[in-house]
Amino acid sequence: MDKIFSGVQPTGNLHIGNYLGAIKNFVELQNNGKARCFYCVVDLHAITVWQDPINLKKEIMETAAVFLAAGIDPKKSIIFNQSKVLFHSELAWILNCICRIGWLNRMTQFKEKAGKNREKVSVGLYNYPVLMAADILAYKSNYVPVGEDQKQHLELARDIAQKFNYDYSVNFFPEIKPLIFGKATRVMSLRNGNSKMSKSDISDYSRINLTDSADLIYNKIKKAKTDSNEIMGIEALDENGNIKSEILYSRPEAVNLLNIYSALADIEIKETLQNFQGKEFRYLKDSISEILVEVIVPLGNKIKDMLEDKTYILDILNDGAEKARGDAEKNLKEIKEIIGFI
Ligand code: TYM
């Protein structure tokens, strides 16, 4: 049976990029019913940068509440938090001994996050992708739904799995295939169309959080950056129906808003361009706000309702961890046997 694994960091401010790029897809894959799905709140990843302990507890609960409110069903999927299943850390150590330093040195996300501060960030931030590989491989998962930004990490996980198989002359780990799909694989900041919408952006106006009120959504979209031209038409598309790269380069904010609208309305970008061609941005902005309020506000309300019953969430996390442990334990036993541990 296919296995699907994905994770979300409990670092606050879950936004429409997380939802449209990843969590919505988790639900779709779960409902396909073709695979065993593991959806994990990756708290061990969160502490690669400083987290206030009281706040971390709150964020773990909130991330689990988002999973549930979005439609991940504990009867169909395994929902748990990473720190409850010790096999992730154990396998991460083993895979640390497989992964090469040169491979980690190529990770662009580390370079971006560490910036000029490279010598002072945690070792955890550096080998973060090895823990990701362990998350996936502890369950021998072959499919991993993520947003575009995680692609390089998944390529690394695939290389680690292959090297393990090669070094020990086994065919133990499956090939890891990223599932990057939907119309919003990379949602950009509302303030700067060249940078990704991110939980950690200091400007709250750069993103639409899943718990934002209708008023706040209207305000954020109203203030979203655009350009001084009118909205382009279908001449912006290349022969494959994608936005031409020169347009993406010259009008990133416009393209981002058009993509957000298409993803929320679940229509092709071509149709969105036809609808708004030649109009001023305020028409597009009004439509985006309306549809956001329709889709995101009810989701936000559900998240808040879920958080009223903390025991329910904790029971689901405990139960999920128990199930996950069962799967991972069996695999870790075999891995240790392959390595030569007694
Ligand atoms: P995280 O918590 O940063 O993001 C969770 C998911 O949301 C996607 N995402 C986006 N998609 C579209 N547009 C955006 N602006 C945007 N921002 C975030 C991410 O691609 C991700 O799918 N390292 C991972 C968590 C992780 C994981 C794993 C994922 C840990 N172990 C194993 C897959 C498999 C992360 O930090 O996601």
Characterise this structure:
With 342 residues, this protein is mostly helical. The chain has 2 domains: 2-179 and 310-339, Rossmann fold, CATH 3.40.50; 204-306, Tyrosyl-Transfer RNA Synthetase (Orthogonal Bundle), CATH 1.10.240.10. 54% of the residues lie in helices and 7% in strands. The protein is built from 15 helices and 5 strands. A 3-stranded parallel β-sheet has the order 1-2-3. The protein has a two-stranded parallel sheet with strand order 4-5. Helix 9 (151-167) links the parallel strand 4 and strand 5. The chain is globular, with a radius of gyration of 21 Å. The two termini are 29 Å apart. The protein binds tryptophanyl-5'AMP. Tryptophanyl-5'AMP binds at residues 5-9, 17-18, 21-22, 42, 45, 132, 135-136, 144, 146-147, 149-150, 184-187, 196-197. Tryptophanyl-5'AMP (TYM) is lined by residues 5-9, 17-18, 21-22, 42, 45, 132, 135-136, 144, 146-147, 149-150, 184-187, 196-197.
Outline of the structure:
With 342 residues, this protein is mostly helical. The protein has helices at 16-32, 43-46, 53-70, 87-96, 101-105, 108-114, 123-126, 128-137, 151-167, 214-223, 245-250, 252-265, 269-276, 281-306, 310-339, and strands at 2-8, 35-41, 77-81, 143-145, 177-179. Helix 1 (16-32) links the parallel strand 1 (2-8) and strand 2 (35-41).
